[in-house]
Amino acid sequence: MIRLNPKYIKILGMIMISILPTIIASFLFLDIDNETNVNLTMSSLYTVGNNYKQQVNNWIEEILFTLKALAYSNPVKNMDRDKMAGIIEYVKANKELYREIYVVDRNYNVIYGYVNQLTDFRNEGWLEKAFQGQIGISTVRFRGNSAIIEVAVPIVNEKAVVGAMCASIRLSYLNDIMEDIRLMDDTVEGYLVNKEGIFITESRFHPDAVGREKVDVKRVKLNIDYSRETPYLDYRGEEVYGIYFDIPFNNWTLIVEKDKKEVNKNNKDIVKIGEYLTGFEVAAMALLQKLFNGEFKNIFSKSIIVDKELNLEFNLDEKGKKDDEDDVV
């Protein structure tokens, strides 16, 4: 029977314990490629942002479709106040985003709906655009922690613009869309700003950002256009990776960002795993050394004694055989 020398078992064991953690760590550290990590982050931000850009655009299109449908109805085209009331109130009751829906004729008279008596429509460019046969949209108006816009579409009767179908729209619904971004990934920040860079939706970090927080839209766009893989400072002064989408609706911008420290967090976790593996390797080698110097050393000593006894018996047998041969001779 073949017996293994404890010395070789010791060497083999130490080699295996040394190599195994290294092999495991090597596979894990293959993922520590910062460039790849950033590219994956940017791809994820684009996918998320593009999805919510489409949701915002769909929301806008739904508003315009509803107002155009109202403007096309006979009671509205004929400026019949009593008959249009039922249709308009039905829409308001089923769509909470409408703060108010009202009809204005070419003489700036409010035919139906509630409007502040002090409002002077003659100075409203968005209403004038509707009278010119186009869609008119006001700038964002901030009231406390809420944002509102006015939208107007032309009312056409027998090929002539006779008034405008108008609506005062609450933008708070857009907060739900931005909240969905954070529900998908709580490390991602998404928000909408107007052309001045003022927040028109809430911030993940500043819930009261609407009308109060502001970003330098031009600087953000320049940074992203120059290199999407290079982080920049956001409105909090934190380094982030980001992407933006132009919303074809009154020069709004959708910005989607992720903190640089969150992007690098995975790498740090893997480095910690490597540190733990290294610690395990050192502890295991120390334990193995202790075992070999103690119990295994005794086993090794016993095997040497057995070897000597076997060798002694073998020598005695050989001597006996030789004496017998001499007697025969």
Automatic annotation (TrEMBL):
- Specify whether Membrane is a keyword of the entry: yes
Q: Any idea where this protein resides?
A: Cell membrane
Q: Which residues form the Cache domain?
A: 44-257
Listed transmembrane segments? 12-30
Please tell me whether the keyword Transmembrane helix is annotated for this protein: yes
Membrane topology per the entry is: Multi-pass membrane protein
- What's in the GO CC field? plasma membrane
**What InterPro entries does the record tag this protein with?**
dCache_1, Sensor-like_sf
The name of this protein is Cache domain-containing protein
* This protein's UniProt keywords: Cell membrane, Membrane, Transmembrane, Transmembrane helix
